[in-house]
């Protein structure tokens, strides 16, 4: 053992380091076990122990998370707890800080939901992101007429934007009939939108609840119906920690029904304050502009001169410009005269008669060369033609006929090459070296 030194750690420092190692080394995990020793003090926190056949783990569920646990927590229940492993430094207690508690049977259900979520995401069903008009001209709310969600939405709308036009479409928001009813309502509203273009936003909402209570909003067909809706859809299902497929497929998700109403309409009081501020800014800007223009007017008035003085100045400027123009014209005229004399001398040296004589001489020499070249070319082409005629005569079939051969042709002018191509009595034409003969086939010889 190393001897004790002045640099020994305090108990608090050891616990602090242990807590950091636990939180960073293990992180957030899911733990399944049996509830034991569930305690709910006045603070609203929930303390309990998770145990199995050979071990136990102390857990703490703080008040801000405990209110989202819908199912009651009783000793002996088997649950799944999501949380992070930590350490309570004052007592050195090793514990699990719980974030969510579910019945253990929900694990397979959540696994199937996660697979469906991944498949829909790959298909692009969660790709909607159309902006919502703010405020909407006509808000269509799909929810239960007796639930707390519609009361929260209407209360927020009344406080923030009383002139909002809202239509409640009563549908069940829990149980087997909820998803088909929501899908049918979405289809009906999209068809009616052609008749009433002012209907521009759909809000699907309900309050919080257990996983089973919210399960209708994880329906695959409902998510697809939201994705294909021509009207933009906002979804506000459950509380902030609840996320359903309907939330993901909607154009905009709100954490709660009240938050949805706040996102849909502006706050009239805030707008009034902004208008008041803008009015003050406008008044200050107008006052500053008037002051600047007044100073500018004073400056221009000081610069203003009598018209007679301005005319005199313009007259002197005009006379100066006239004198400069006359001098420039005289200089330009002298320059042009010198250039004209120079061009006349050049023209005399290049009289057209001289150029014509030189051109006639060049033309005569060119004509003589052309005639000589034509004669040589005609002689060369004549010799080439004679050679080609001799080559043609050597390969011409007419030369073969001149040696005593004949070409037989049938009535269609086809050349007869074999005796089997003729019939007795058939008329043929024999082409000789000079002239043709009309012959008839008597018989064929082998």
Automatic annotation (TrEMBL):
Domain OB-fold nucleic acid binding residues, every copy: 9-101
Residues covered by the Exonuclease VII large subunit C-terminal domain: 128-439
Pfam families: Exonuc_VII_L (PF02601), tRNA_anti_2 (PF13742)
Broad EC category: hydrolase
Compartmental location: Cytoplasm
Quaternary assembly: Heterooligomer composed of large and small subunits.
The protein, known as: Exodeoxyribonuclease 7 large subunit
Organism of this sequence: Billgrantia aerodenitrificans
Gene name for this UniProt entry: xseA
